[in-house]
Write a structure and sequence with these properties.
- By secondary structure, the protein is of the alpha+beta class.
- The strands form two sheets. Strands 2, 3, 4, 5, 6, 7, 8, 9 and 10 form a nine-stranded mixed sheet that branches. The chain has a four-stranded antiparallel sheet with strand order 1-11-12-13.
- A hairpin with a 4-residue loop joins strand 8 and strand 9.
- It is globular and about 45 Å long.
Length: about 230
């Protein structure tokens, strides 16, 4: 993405105060009744980079459809957190960006769940046995043509990680209550391919979460709490 940010603003109508602690049991109750029970594999995705920049939809239509999955890891701490990664700076795409563990769905994967668990193990060494699937979010269509299925999973806090240096520079946790507080949700705009692209963004301490990752977190907020 090229250009300079020209607009940073809270999402209209979302000025609520941030930071109220979230109860893990309450989150789990909501998740088990509000998440999708099966992955969204068909139909035209409503969620995606085109939500805030409709012009992107026409560009994506010309690209081959590609399936992908990410794990949205909710760590079962007293104050629940979300496990995120910092992608390696030398990667050819999305370098040095904050992301969920995930990637393409391979033919040998057991669907999006299998792909998300495999990628999490490959990227950060998260053992699949420590992840309890809770459900799915709506598929997210990226500007590069990937139809990403977010798999929400509960991670036992005694997990250990071994980072793959070819893919990940760092793994870290962000409090779920921060990410689910609408007062921390912003929209930013930048020039991209001759158009103004608008996208979701959140900044936790010095970490800037934006683009697909922020869009999926926004989708989690809207499905669970809004």
């Amino acid at each position: 993405m090229n250009g300079v940010s020209v607009n940073v603003s809270p999402i209209p109508g979302m000025e609520a105060a941030a930071g109220a602690p979230l109860d893990l049991d309450d989150f789990l109750m909501r998740a088990r009744t509000r998440l999708l029970a099966s992955p969204d594999l068909d139909g035209d995705p409503v969620r995606g980079d085109h939500e805030l920049t409709p012009e992107i939809r026409a560009l994506v239509a010309a690209l081959p459809a590609r399936g992908a999955a990410v794990l949205v890891p909710i760590v079962a701490r007293a104050r629940p957190t979300v496990l995120l990664t910092l992608r390696s700076a030398h990667l050819s795409s999305h370098a040095a960006q904050i992301a969920f563990p995930g990637g393409k769905i391979d033919p040998e994967d057991d669907g999006p769940l299998g792909a998300a668990l495999r990628e999490a193990q490959e990227e950060v060494g998260l053992a699949p046995a420590l992840v309890a699937p809770l459900g799915y979010l709506d598929a997210y269509l990226s500007r590069t043509g990937y139809r990403i299925v977010p798999v929400v999973g509960l991670v036992q806090p005694e997990f250990g990680l071994t980072l793959n240096p070819g893919e990940v520079d760092e793994a870290f946790e962000v409090p779920l209550d921060f990410l689910m507080s609408p007062g921390n949700h912003q929209r930013e705009s930048r020039e991209w391919l001759g158009m103004m692209r608008t996208f979701h963004a959140m900044t936790y301490e010095k970490r800037r979460i934006w683009g697909i990752t922020a869009g999926i977190l926004r989708s989690l907020y809207e499905r669970i709490y809004a």
